[in-house]
Amino acid sequence: MERKVAAARYNVQRQGAKRRGIEWQFTFDTWQAWWGEDIDKRGTKSGQLVMARYNDNGPYHPDNVRKLTMEEN
């Protein structure tokens, strides 16, 4: 994924967390590394992957999130 597109998607996700009052502890680089090759599979539609916090608690942090499909979350 082009860096400019990835940066825009990072900012949308970061702002979404802020809007919901959830602390965001990813830099762009850690976010991109965390998604890895799955970055093109992320989204909000059926079958796509989301960044899910364990028990919907705590911040968005590399140690507190996992990849799930929309349905699993």
Kindly describe this structure:
34% of the residues lie in helices and 14% in strands. By secondary structure, the chain is α+β, with helices and mostly antiparallel strands. A two-stranded antiparallel ribbon has the order 1-2. The model has no long low-confidence stretch (mean pLDDT 96).
A few lines on this structure:
With 73 residues, this protein is an alpha+beta fold. The protein has helices at residues 3-19, 28-35; strands at 49-53, 65-69.
Strand content: 5-15%
Number of helices: 2
Please write the string of helix (H) and strand (E) elements: HHEE
**What percent of the residues sit in helical stretches (DSSP H or I)?**
25-40%
Count of DSSP E strands? 2
**Strand line-up across the major sheet:** 1-2
Provide mean pLDDT, rounded.
96
- What sort of overall outline do the alpha carbons produce when their principal axes are compared? globular
The helix/strand class is: alpha+beta
Topology:
Blueprint: H1 3-19, H2 28-35, E1 49-53, E2 65-69
Note the main attributes of this structure.
globular; 73 residues; two-stranded antiparallel sheet
